[in-house]
Specification:
heterodimer, A: mainly alpha, two-stranded antiparallel ribbon, 3 helices, flat, B: alpha+beta, two-stranded antiparallel sheet, 6 strands, elongated
Chain lengths: 135, 153
């Protein structure tokens, strides 16, 4: 009962936010490093797609880990993906594409997002506690 | 917990930026040093120092493998930044005509350090800003970690 789908989604989202925090920290740390390319985390779009389709779309049932997934990705298979940005963004002389303003904004946004997730997850547990307490 | 990795990378950046600041202040304070080193019976002027930085990769660390396996990210986060070495700027020294100077050569020219004060000040500014940004990143990670402790409270 404690590991509901909702909780597992929160868990994945928190994982993604944590990984993103790490990626942003690294980008900020390497703001002056020559030839550094920014790293970013993709997760929310994939999750949204999986959630939108999960009730209606056809998904293949996998009985073995070596089976290739087809149909829609199920919620279990969605996870944060780390990618290195190859795109030519704002570029410094040293072939480094860290945009500090963008990273700092992202840092603030990610922090708020993380806090919101924690609050929601906490809320879930509080509801359970209310039920157990019966008051 | 990956948040601690975020502390590590920001901390490594603080160290690197502090070292860069040390190098810059050494350059500024030695902007007029004509006796940097003694080579073959002649004094050479101080040579501008540059800190070489590169991303710190710890691909083989246990933490990274665990994280790759747990999150299925398939890629490791680079773990901050480090100064690999401090090199000397190879631009030739500035020559100034001053026959009265004790270190002047036969034609009356003195070799002055290849330190450009303007360049140093700009570097100093960007280093300070980078340092501050990393402090902000650490504070953000700290706030997130504290918030995570509230789950189930």
């Amino acid at each position: 009962m404690l590991s509901t789908p909702t909780m597992s989604i929160f868990e994945k989202a928190l994982d993604a936010a944590t990984l993103r925090q790490r990626a942003i920290s690294n980008n900020i740390a390497n703001v002056d490093t020559p030839h550094y390319r920014t790293q970013s985390v993709v997760f929310e779009d994939e999750l949204q797609k999986a959630m939108a389709k999960s009730s209606t779309a056809f998904t293949a049932y996998r009985t073995n880990e070596k089976h290739l997934p087809f149909g829609m990705a199920s919620l279990q298979d969605v996870g944060p993906k780390l990618q290195v940005d190859k795109a030519v963004g704002p570029m410094q002389n040293s072939a480094n594409n860290v945009d500090l303003d963008f990273e700092m904004t992202n840092l603030a946004r990610n922090q708020l997002w993380y806090n919101a997730l924690v609050q929601q997850a906490s809320g879930q547990y509080n509801k359970l506690r209310t039920v157990i307490g019966g008051k | 917990m990956a948040l601690f990795g975020s502390f590590d990378s920001s901390a490594s950046a603080l160290t690197a930026n502090r070292l860069r600041m040390d190098v810059i202040s050494s350059n500024i304070s030695n902007a007029n040093t004509t006796r940097g080193e003694y080579v073959n019976g002649r004094w050479q002027p101080y040579k501008r120092k540059v800190a070489i930085i590169e991303p710190k990769k710890e691909a083989s660390s246990f933490q990274n493998f665990l994280q790759m396996a747990a999150n299925k990210t398939g890629r490791t986060v680079t773990n901050g930044v480090r100064v690999t070495r401090i090199m000397e700027d190879r631009t030739p020294p500035k020559m100034m005509y001053d026959p009265t100077h004790p270190d002047a050569d036969a034609r009356g020219y003195v070799a002055l350090p290849n330190v450009d004060m303007l360049k140093e000040m700009v570097d100093l500014m960007s280093t300070t800003r980078a340092y501050e940004s990393n402090v902000t990143a650490i504070n953000a990670a700290k706030a997130m970690a504290m918030k995570a402790l509230e789950i189930g409270k």
